[in-house]
């Protein structure tokens, strides 16, 4: 029996819908259903009545629900107590985030005056979007930092998670430049003209979907021809600098290349999208240091200088 099975059961008990619960748990519906089946097999009784819509708990499910809630609470409380007894307050805080944020945002953010005053020891696991979210869901890290946009795919909504806004960035369309600093590629070309496109691979799952959202705003369909794919924004950036095509990239990632004249933004603001940078954690008590950092971030969010810090960073980029 796994703790995540219990958390899955609590989610389906709250939503009464397998699709909604699977989305909240950030896994596919078939995988979510298999985990519920595994829990029922371990219990030895059906917990969900799947013959109704919305689904209902069986008599066994209703009996199991309050005990399941206590088990999950006690598991995390016991972990916190053990960590505190073992001196967890001196252990590292573990973060996971997108590669772009790990490289270009996290070092400056954790070193900013409002954050660096805390004596923290940290470690970072950089990954794609799905792996980052899964790391937090499975308890493999204390915090997850990722991009969020209200029209993008939902990020840890409806689950046992808390979130805070810690920054902003912008997704922009860029092109390499010629020797005179002019864009190598332009969107104002005949419809029959193919524009070489540097695309996010399927595993990214978030920025690629935001890029598709931006494309839908253009006055006519873009004749983009994918010539290269990568899950890494940095990889797409270097291909754009090399003149291989156009790419939607976080502004924080390309700011330096744009200052050096290696890249230019094309398409204007219509081809861009502002994104929030958010930090997530599991709801409830964590370690001494993770709780202290979270409370500090909540306190900082009320300060005018905290808001101006990330807005100035976006303007500077």
From TrEMBL:
Keywords (A to Z) from UniProt: DNA-binding, Transcription, Transcription regulation
InterPro entries in the record: LysR_HTH_N (IPR000847), LysR_subst-bd (IPR005119), WH-like_DNA-bd_sf (IPR036388), WH_DNA-bd_sf (IPR036390)
Superkingdom, taxonomy of origin: Bacteria
GO molecular function, one term: transcription cis-regulatory region binding
Signal sequence segment: none
One Pfam family in the UniProt entry: HTH_1
Keyword Transcription regulation listed: yes
Protein name according to UniProt: LysR family transcriptional regulator
């Amino acid at each position: 029996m796994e703790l995540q099975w219990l958390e899955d059961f609590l989610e389906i008990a709250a939503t009464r819908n397998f699709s909604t619960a699977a989305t909240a748990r950030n896994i596919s519906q078939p995988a979510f259903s298999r985990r519920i089946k595994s829990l029922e097999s371990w219990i030895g009784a059906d917990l969900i009545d799947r013959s109704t819509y919305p689904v209902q708990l069986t008599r066994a499910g209703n009996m199991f629900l309050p005990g399941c809630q206590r088990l999950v609470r006690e598991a995390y409380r016991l972990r916190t107590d053990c960590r505190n007894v073992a001196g967890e307050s001196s252990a590292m805080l573990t973060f996971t985030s997108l590669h772009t944020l790990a490289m270009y945002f996290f070092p400056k953010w954790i070193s900013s005056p409002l954050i660096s005053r805390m004596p923290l020891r940290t470690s970072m696991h950089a990954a794609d979007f799905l792996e980052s979210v899964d790391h937090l869901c499975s308890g493999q890290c204390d915090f997850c930092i990722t991009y969020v946009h209200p029209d993008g795919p939902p990020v840890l909504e409806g689950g046992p998670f808390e979130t805070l806004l810690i920054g902003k960035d912008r997704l922009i369309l860029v092109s390499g430049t010629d020797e005179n600093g002019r864009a190598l590629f332009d969107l104002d070309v005949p419809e029959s003209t193919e524009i070489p496109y540097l695309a996010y691979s399927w595993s990214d799952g978030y920025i690629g979907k935001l890029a598709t959202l931006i494309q839908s705003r253009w006055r006519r369909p873009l004749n983009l021809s994918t010539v290269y794919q990568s899950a890494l924004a940095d990889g797409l950036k270097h291909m754009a600098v090399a003149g291989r095509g156009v790419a939607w990239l976080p502004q924080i990632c390309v700011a330096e290349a744009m200052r050096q004249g290696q890249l230019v933004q094309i398409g204007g603001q219509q081809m861009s999208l502002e994104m929030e940078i958010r930090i997530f954690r599991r709801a409830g008590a964590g370690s001494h240091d993770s709780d202290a950092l979270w409370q500090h971030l909540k306190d900082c969010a009320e300060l005018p200088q905290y808001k101006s810090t990330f807005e100035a960073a976006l303007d500077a980029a």
